[in-house]
Amino acid sequence: MTYNESIRMDPAPQNDSKHDDEQRAGESWFVLAARYSHLAFVLPAATFVGWLIGAGLDRWLHKDWIVVPCVIFGMVVGMIEIIRVATKGDPR
């Protein structure tokens, strides 16, 4: 057998959506719950981190308004993360 014949006998792997669907259907709901459970904590955590940074900057710079844009920024970042994870679907 020549080198060219061995290449022809070993075709390139194809993306089989049926195989992906079977793997996804075989996943337990525990795996799915673990994958998406952090979505419930992303928005409150991002908002809290924004508030924490804003409050720290307010104290350090002796201002009263910095916390508001930081909280808004944290909420926006949290929503972006939720949308990114929710639309990504399968992480493979």
Residue share in helix: over 70%
Structural category: mainly alpha
Weakly predicted, low-confidence segments: none
Q: What's the end-to-end separation, in Å?
A: 37 Å
Tell me the Rg in angstroms: 24 Å
Global morphology: elongated
Give an overview of the whole structure.
With about 90 residues, the chain is mostly helical. The chain has a domain at about 35-90. The chain contains 5 helices and no strands. The longest helix is centred in the middle third of the chain and has 23 residues, at about 40-60. The two termini are about 35 Å apart.
Write the layout of secondary structure elements.
Blueprint: H1 3-9, H2 17-26, H3 29-36, H4 39-61, H5 67-88
